[in-house]
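**Protein of interest**
===
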Amino acid sequence: MEHIPILKIGDCLLVSIQVDMHDRLAIALQNNLTEKIVITKARGVLIDISALEIVDSFIGRTLNNIASMANVLDAITVVVGMRPAVAITLVELGLNLPGVRTALDVDKGLVLIRNSIDDELGEIDAGELN
């Protein structure tokens, strides 16, 4: 079976999906990624889907599940590289993906994750001062 690599960059994990996703691969990615978040104590997860031409409702829900699980594990998820056709399909399927943040590319996605982490740390520091 195919395997999608998960790379660690600082306190973030980078997933670049370069193969067509099928249901079994999506579930394996979800399981592997949640395990890797726990093992590495990652604060951010960046998922690059720029190579995906098609995202069906199952893959869309799986991306949302990954973001929800990452959130429970104290990690921020950002999906980058979404093609216009994929965005249109997700909207037409009625998938709003409330737990998924998006950015245009990897650089902007990493900035979004870093800013979110810094904002959370600022809130914690401000709370400790009171």
